[in-house]
From TrEMBL:
UniProt keywords, alphabetically: Glycosidase, Hydrolase
Species of provenance: Planococcus liqunii
Family: Belongs to the glycosyl hydrolase 36 family.
Pfam families reported for this sequence: Glyco_hydro_36C, Glyco_hydro_36N, Melibiase
Protein name: Alpha-galactosidase
Length: 736
């Protein structure tokens, strides 16, 4: 059993394949954390793991007892104001103004499988044997409110999912001013905090910092998970590397405002917390109402950061992403955006599709500009019907013409936004997020539709569903190019205005749910001005996301390397684009652009009709190679080897290995050419030491232990015949 209960001591022992998570009911009825880390054998009692001593200058919970203080013990879901002076996991404002609560253990149940979270994306089990769930009910009799803590153990996948649900049975209203998803108290603070930070065009760069006393956090208040921070953090030991050492990971399955923080106290213990950002948040609970927090996924690894990442990859690829496209090979696509921007007509689009088909492309995607009167980014968002000036025969006939070539057809939408110059805004100016009598800021000349209102979501659903019903569309790129400002809704009363941001995200999820249910054959790709909402929440509905608007091969090394800390290769949209690159102006070879983009959901974003015959032959070969290897790329084990975030950062390498270890693909990249270089090697990971392997293009074979231990000497097997900046090579490795 992955969840064991010691009744006499009221201890819970959660076990995955390699980890243990142990907590108990403390003497005050609240839950205390005992251990989280490498797997321990089960005992009839873990009381020896719980110890507290009298300490001067603190407060204790019970009169006459000078020992037991919440200031000194590790806890599971800590509260505010009752001898614990650290930040709490939750806070309940009551009618009389009190924020003091006493949620104590009432009962628990253990069951096979995993229940859905109401209105929220989450990991799932396909049968009751895949996961085991513990639900603990805590109760505060004074206010007649329950908190149900949920722990789902994915034993074989080696992860634990946590969330909380608040239910108000009392007659009085309560306000949740803070309701985080997870809290973990660790016994020390000898860690480095690893986060994914950045901005538009440089998303998810890896940043490390040593923990220090006090609070250190990452967060978003932008209405999305954001490009600036990602809803993930890890705590690793200072000596931990990619492939060895301890690391704890926490990832939030949520797409809105979030907080992830570490608090180091005066005894150098660390408290990790994660959930909806309490900033500008409040949730009113009336009698009989409940509030469900998003899910946080915890992973412990003693095999370094890469070990943690592989656990997230397996879980998120197979038990977070879902639907027809979860396990299917993704099509090679071409997107017309950088080829045409808004300047196209039916003939131009068909010519692009026709030329692409000849090269082996399988899916043509028509991006922004097909609807309303959209000649620039200043109009027509919300008017989801074709612009007959550009497409006189409509989307349906264009889609049929392109599918008649033997290709699939995809379409771009930005359903959450509206332009002032649009029929929708003229009809419903009250349907945007705004505050009356205050200036409405804009971003990219657009406003945010109020998805906290059901009628708005219903209207957009009707427009999108009509297009998807009428035309043979098998792919949707769902974009979102604007953060929230002046957050307010005309559809909510004054005492619910701080619910808008979360209700908005629930509206986004509900629209995704309806569309993916009605059109299960459609592959949805999420996008948000590139990677501004690349998070586990959207991965539940869209099994791939546009990783970044920055398609420069050199910049993509950092973006894709950092993204892989949590997200599987199959989730990363990665395209070959034109040079000079439209984002940074750099010129890289067609070979290197493809060598980087192979490690993702592969495609192109350029005008193939302008290519030379030599370039077209090169593209044909790239597409052939990708099709031959995409099952390996999308479903194999991914290993990071050399980091672009290293002090030098001139070399990057990574590797994907099949589950049976019979084949592998290694990508090696050098940013700048080095004069008279010394001997250098790349060391493989994940191969079977006993297998003999051949490497395509090389006239020798190698045993797995040689490639792992001795490595491949790059000076002997050069990247190219002539040294050059931005050079690369991809080695295909197969068992002999």
């Amino acid at each position: 059993m992955p969840i064991l209960y010691n009744g006499s001591t009221q201890e819970f022992h959660l076990q995955t394949k390699k980890t243990s998570y142990i907590f108990s009911v403390m003497e005050n009825g609240q839950l205390g954390q005992l251990y989280y880390g490498k797997k321990l054998r089960h005992r009839e009692s873990f009381e020896r793991l719980f110890h507290v001593e009298a300490t001067p200058n603190t407060a204790c919970t019970t009169e006459g007892d000078l020992v037991f203080s919440l200031d000194l013990v590790k806890q599971e879901y800590p509260a505010y104001g009752t001898t614990d002076f650290r930040e709490p996991a939750y806070q309940v404002l009551q009618e009389g103004g009190s924020r003091i609560t006493d949620f104590v253990y009432q009962d628990h149940r253990i069951f096979g499988g995993k229940e859905k979270l109401e209105g929220l994306p989450a990991t799932y089990a396909e049968n009751d044997g895949e996961a085991t769930t513990l639900e603990i009910t805590l109760y505060d009799k004074e206010i007649d409110v329950e908190v149900r803590l949920s722990y789902t153990v994915f034993e074989e996948l080696d992860a634990i999912a946590r969330s909380a649900r608040f239910i108000n049975y009392g007659e009085a209203d309560i306000n949740l001013t803070r309701a985080l998803s997870v809290s973990i108290d660790l016994p020390d603070s000898n860690f480095e905090m690893v986060q994914l930070s950045g901005a538009w065009a440089r998303e998810r760069h890896i940043k490390n910092r040593r923990l220090v006393p006090g609070l250190q956090s990452i967060a978003s208040t932008r209405g999305t998970s954001s490009a600036q921070q990602n809803p993930f953090l890890a705590l690793k030991r200072p000596e931990t590397t990619e492939h060895q050492g301890e690391v704890y990971g926490a990832s939030l399955v949520y797409s809105g405002n979030f907080l992830a923080q570490i608090e180091v106290d005066h005894y150098d213990t660390a408290r990790l917390m994660m959930g909806i950002n309490p900033f500008d948040f409040n949730w009113l609970l009336k009698n009989g109402e409940s509030f469900q927090t998003p899910e946080a996924v915890l992973v412990y690894s003693d095999a370094g950061l890469n070990g943690m990442s592989q656990t997230y990859h397996r879980l998120y690829r197979t038990r977070l992403a879902r639907g027809k496209w979860r396990d299917r090979e993704r099509p090679v696509l071409i997107n017309n955006w950088e080829a045409t921007y808004f300047d196209f007509d039916e003939q131009k689009i068909f010519e692009l599709a026709q030329s692409s088909k000849e090269l082996g492309v399988e899916l043509f995607v028509l991006d922004d500009g097909w609807f309303g009167k959209r000649d620039a980014d200043t109009s027509s968002l919300g008017d989801w019907f074709e612009d007959k000036r550009k497409l006189p025969n409509g989307i349906t006939q264009l889609a049929k013409a392109i599918t008649g070539l033997g290709m699939e057809f995809g379409l771009w939408f930005e359903p959450e936004m509206v332009s002032k110059a649009s029929d929708l805004y003229n009809a419903h100016p009250d349907w945007v997020i705004h505050v009356p009598n205050r200036r409405m800021s804009h971003g990219r000349n657009q406003l945010v539709l109020d998805f906290s209102r059901q009628e708005v979501v219903d209207f957009i659903y009707g427009l999108m569903a009509k297009v998807l019903r009428d035309a043979p569309i098998s792919y949707v790129k769902w974009d979102m190019n604007r953060y929230m400002t002046e957050v307010g809704s005309l559809g909510l009363p004054a005492d619910r205005q701080r619910e808008v941001a979360h209700r908005y995200i629930l509206g986004v999820y509900s629209l995704y749910e309806r569309l993916t249910s009605e059109f299960p054959h459609v592959l949805f790709e999420s996008c948000a001005g590139g990677g501004s909402r690349f998070d586990p929440g959207l991965l539940h509905y869209a099994p791939q996301g546009w990783t970044s608007d920055d398609t420069d091969a050199v910049e993509r090394l950092k973006i894709q390397y950092g993204t892989s800390l949590v997200y599987p290769v199959s989730s990363m949209g990665a395209h070959v684009s034109a040079v000079p690159n439209h984002q940074v102006g750099r010129v890289t070879s067609l070979e290197t652009r493809a060598n980087v983009a192979y490690f993702g959901a592969f495609g192109y974003e350029l005008d193939v009709t302008m290519m030379t015959d030599t370039e077209k032959e090169q593209v044909k070969e790239q597409i052939r190679f990708y099709k031959e290897n995409r099952s390996l790329i999308q479903q194999g084990q991914f290993y990071r080897i050399e980091s672009p975030f290293a002090e030098d950062g001139n070399r990057t390498s990574w590797l994907v290995v099949s589950d049976d270890q019979s084949e592998a693909l290694l990508g090696y990249y050098q940013v700048l050419s080095t004069p008279n270089p010394g001997l250098s090697r790349v060391f493989f990971k994940g191969l079977n030491p006993e297998f003999e392997y051949a490497i395509e293009g090389l006239d020798a074979t190698f045993y797995g232990d040689e490639l792992i231990g001795a490595g491949l000497q790059l000076n002997r097997y050069r990247l190219s015949e002539h040294p050059a900046d931005f050079s690369s090579v991809v080695y295909k490795v197969k068992r002999v």
